[in-house]
Design a protein that fits this description.
With about 350 residues, the protein is of the alpha+beta class. The protein has two domains: about 90 residues; about 230 residues, BirA Bifunctional Protein, domain 2 (2-Layer Sandwich), CATH 3.30.930.10. About 40% of the residues lie in helices and about 20% in strands. The strands form three sheets. The protein has a seven-stranded mixed sheet with strand order 1-4-5-11-10-7-6, sandwiched between helices. Helix 1 runs parallel beside helix 4, helix 2 packs antiparallel against helix 4 and helix 5 packs across helix 10. The longest helix is centred in the first third of the chain and has 35 residues. It is elongated, with a radius of gyration of 39 Å.
Length: about 350
């Protein structure tokens, strides 16, 4: 058989082999067998010097034609295999369904602050507690020394579902539930959503609070001050100064407001641009309310105020986040602007 005939037979041979090829590996094996350095085409061409000089050009031309044909057959089979793989991957796929992008979000600054606060208090031995956002008047007000018609209720005007059922105005009801559910000593930290009828540049109808409660024997105002100083320096830095001012809350006595040295001016009251815009030139920023638990609250939950004492505190999470991250507009927390959220 002439070399030209052998070259033409390679096409038929590859076509027969490709019928049995069903994977990329088998396809590569077929390519090597026919077009590899030691393949059938190379073996035939190795015999080219045996031919007479006049016959060589025709055989060389035929070899180029056969090589191009073999390459085309391999490419066609490769395309068929890829099409089958795509069809298998798409089997059962409904093209009418909306597309899904990989999740590429970030934690909301409110979530970051809640986790940080709870982490600090868990390190101090506190337990994270939670409770219902839809509360009874008893747990939200009465058990906290705010009976009906008490003027302190006006400061927490909320959204009522019925006359006795409402959206909680603070997370303090969880403190009452915790005390009713166990005996002292106890230490709980309570994060969660709260609701009030406020809506302006500095208030929203829903916001987040974290409150804490410690009850035991011989708990004093000194314990309260030491605990909150450790906490506030943990959030805002070890150089933060803390001060306490007398205040009033119906469920604590005595009560206090805790301030921290301004996070922008470092407590100086001014910056290079003039009076500090955060502390309004005072050098201090109000951060939370606190106090010793009122004996009337202990009596409402069945504790003996002669046997135990305790302290409680509460703060707004968004306020802490605004100071910590330098956020100037409260509304940014609720606008779901991806450009804002991607910074955290």
């Amino acid at each position: 058989m002439s070399l030209i005939a052998e070259l033409e037979n390679l096409i038929t041979s590859l076509q027969a082999d490709l019928v049995r090829v069903f994977s990329p590996l088998e396809l590569e094996q077929a390519r090597v067998a026919h077009l590899g350095r030691k393949g059938s085409l190379a073996r035939i061409m190795a015999r080219l010097p045996e031919l007479a000089s006049a016959e060589r050009p025709a055989v060389g031309q035929k070899a180029n034609e056969v090589k191009a044909r073999l390459t085309a057959l391999l490419e066609d089979r490769k395309a068929e295999l890829e099409a089958r793989e795509d069809a298998a991957r798409l089997s059962g796929f409904d093209a009418s369904l909306p597309g899904r992008l990989p999740w590429q979000g970030s934690r909301h600054p409110t979530t970051l602050v809640i986790e940080e606060i709870c982490g600090i208090f868990q390190g101090l031995g506190y337990e994270v507690a939670s409770g219902p956002e839809v509360e009874t008047d008893y747990y939200n007000f009465e058990a906290l020394n705010m009976p009906p018609e008490h003027p302190a209720r006006d400061m927490q005007d909320t959204l009522y579902i019925t006359e006795r059922i409402l959206l909680r105005t603070h997370t303090s009801p969880v403190q009452v539930r915790a005390m009713k559910g166990r005996k002292p000593p106890l230490a709980v930290i309570v994060p969660g959503k709260v609701y009030r009828r406020d809506s302006d540049l500095t208030h929203t109808p829903m916001f987040h609070q974290v409150e804490g409660l410690l009850v035991g024997k011989d708990v004093s105002m000194a314990h309260l001050r030491g605990t909150l100083t450790v906490f506030l320096r943990g959030v805002f830095g070890s150089e933060t100064r803390v001060r306490f001012r007398p205040s009033f809350f119906p469920f604590t006595e005595p009560s206090a407001e805790a301030d921290i040295s301004c996070v922008l001016c470092g407590g100086k009251g001014s910056t290079d641009e003039g009076a500090c815009r955060v502390c309004k030139g005072t050098g201090w920023v109000e951060i939370l309310g606190c106090g010793m638990v009122d004996p009337a609250v202990f009596e409402s939950v069945g504790y003996d105020p002669e046997e135990v004492t305790g302290f409680a505190f509460g703060l707004g999470v968004e306020r802490v986040a605004m100071l910590k991250y330098g956020i100037g507009d409260l509304r940014m927390f609720f606008e779901n602007d991806a450009r804002f959220l991607a910074q955290f």
